[in-house]
Structures are given as structure tokens and as C-alpha cells.
Design goal:
With 94 residues, this protein is α+β, with helices and mostly antiparallel strands. The protein has one domain: Trna Endonuclease, Chain: A, domain 1 (3-Layer(aba) Sandwich), CATH 3.40.1350.10. It has a 4-stranded mixed beta sheet with strand order 1-2-3-4. The longest helix has 19 residues. The protein is globular, with a radius of gyration of 14 Å. The N and C termini lie far apart (30 Å).
């Protein structure tokens, strides 16, 4: 019994993104339901800019073109909502 290590890495990287955006002057609001097209809603404290973010862990290919980054595509719902991806490397410090 335990959590899937990939899900743990994703959760950790979501918190890394929160810290990054707080340092950049955003107020950060997290999705409380755990699933959905948006992980974070950001509001910049000075400009009022609103951003909708889906946090992704950067993944690299192990076979075809090893070491190259795997590109992710937004879902049609995310495109409609103008959601941005924020890629976080699992080994990156904040």
C-alpha cells in the first residue's frame, strides 16, 4: 500500500510551482478537487493579471530520441479556458 511515485512527484512539483509563482508576486489559488483542467489560478498582486495554470512534470524520452523532452498537448477544454502549462523538472530546486 502506498502512493504511485509518479503522483508524488507531480504533487511535489505542483508545490514547487506555487513557491515559484509566490516569489514572482502572484497570489496563488489551488484546485481543491485534485483533478480538472486547472491546477492553479494566479493573480498578480501589482498588475491584477490572471493566469490559469496546469503544472506538468518535465518528462524525457527513454527510447526514440533518448533524452529529448516529451511535448504535452493541452486538452480542448484547456485551450478553450486559455490554460497555460508550467513545466517543472523533478530535480529542479525552487
Amino acid at each position: 500500500m502506498g502512493r504511485d511515485p509518479k503522483k508524488v512527484i507531480g504533487d511535489v512539483n505542483e508545490f514547487k510551482a506555487v513557491i515559484k509563482f509566490l516569489k514572482e508576486g502572484y497570489m496563488v489559488f489551488k484546485n481543491v478537487s485534485g483533478t480538472g483542467p486547472i491546477d492553479l489560478v494566479l493573480v498578480h498582486q501589482k498588475t491584477g493579471e490572471v493566469r490559469k495554470i496546469d503544472v506538468k512534470t518535465t518528462s524525457y524520452r527513454k527510447s526514440w530520441k533518448p533524452g529529448t523532452r516529451i511535448c504535452r498537448q493541452r486538452t480542448p477544454e484547456q485551450v478553450k479556458l486559455k490554460v497555460e502549462y508550467e513545466f517543472i523538472d523533478k530535480d529542479e530546486d525552487v
